[in-house]
Amino acid sequence: MIWQEVKLCLTATSSVGAEMLTAELVRLGVSGWQVQSAQELRAYLQAEDAPFDYADAGLRAQAAALDNLIMFTLYLADDEQGQQQLSAIQQLAERTDANWGQLDVLVRQRSSEEWEDNWKQYYKPFKVGQRLVVCPSWEKYQPAADELLLMIEPGGSFGTGQHQTTRLCLELLEQYLTEYQQQHGCLPEKLLDLGCGTGILSIGGLLLGVNSAAAVDIEEHSAHAAAENAALNDI
Fold it and tell me: pTM for the whole thing?
């Protein structure tokens, strides 16, 4: 889908000008936007309790680049309604008011594909526990003799394996199954995966030797994703 990325740069203005612009956007039916203010960023960076892992050099550079600007960033659909809203916003740039300051409107087209798939470049195969290797469906990985390959297509469901809770569950599952087999000479027959998301835990259990699994979720798209991921792993 194509969107109009609109950046509204308020120069030499006060918080009153930002509030006035906010009121105008609400009046025009714009439902959401991001605000960046050099003044607020500097105050945040100077605060003693600012998280060190967020208040980094990149954020300081951003505050410097804004100078005395207050910048609103919003996205409008590239349709008739979006064009009408954009035209009304551009007319705001002609407004003159001591509190308003100068308003510059910058527009460019963006495709939703830019951010829908960008994250995939950071999702690479990784090992969990002793044997499981979680691999996204678009990557190639040749498992070693003692490794079990768990292919995942996350879609919009939770369960890529990168979140700590999922990784810990996979590690504990492998540990539990190993101990169970040592104690009983066999593996459990059934596994129940409540809130399965992508199905990664139930699929992991099956790859580790459990005979059957029931994967359940209240979200319909998660149920479909789990079924597709099961097929992806020949399950």
Answer: 0.58
